[in-house]
Structures are given as C-alpha cells and as structure tokens.
Write a structure and sequence with these properties.
27% helix, 95 residues, alpha+beta, 5 strands, single chain
C-alpha cells in the first residue's frame, strides 16, 4: 500500500498552511481535537477534498479513512507542535 503524499506548505483560504504530518484519518482527527482544545485551527486534506470540520457521519459510515495531510496555519505551527509534543525536526522539512 502506498502512502499518500501531500505538499509541505499550501495556500488555503488565502493564507499559508503547513503540513504537520501525514497519518491515518482517525489519528489525524484525534490530533485535530487536541489542537482545537488548545486553540489551534487545523484542516485535514484527503486525496479528494479539504475538511475543516470533523465529518463524524463520514467516519461512522466508513468514508475515506486512509492517509490524510494534517495542516495548521503557518503562524500557529509552534503552538501546534507544542500541543502535540513534537519537535520541529519531527515534522515536515522546511521548503
């Protein structure tokens, strides 16, 4: 099984966003909750679409559960890393 690839940095809704990691959808949704609880905005990118909110119905009905890209606004990257207990070296390389 090949792992999906997502860009390290993207423009989303007019702002630069940075990929924190590529991981299975359920894990990414858990990380999104942690980020949200800490005040960090995040978005998930599947191979098909962007998902700003957690689509519970999609998850419950067996929607896309493969690898997704988890993105945060570039300005919130340090906060996101701290909330997730990650070091900058644990994330995507600088482009």
């Amino acid at each position: 099984m090949t792992r999906s690839t997502f860009e390290d940095r993207v423009m989303y809704q007019g702002d630069p966003w940075v990929r924190v990691d590529t991981l299975p959808r359920l894990l990414a949704e858990g990380w999104r909750r942690t980020l949200s609880d800490g005040g960090v905005v995040s978005v998930v990118r599947t191979p098909f679409q962007w998902a700003m909110g957690s689509p519970v119905i999609e998850i419950e009905t067996g929607g896309y559960m493969g690898d997704v890209g988890l993105y945060v606004p570039e300005v919130q990257l340090p906060e996101a890393l701290a909330l997730l207990g990650l070091e900058p070296d644990d994330t995507t390389p600088d482009a």
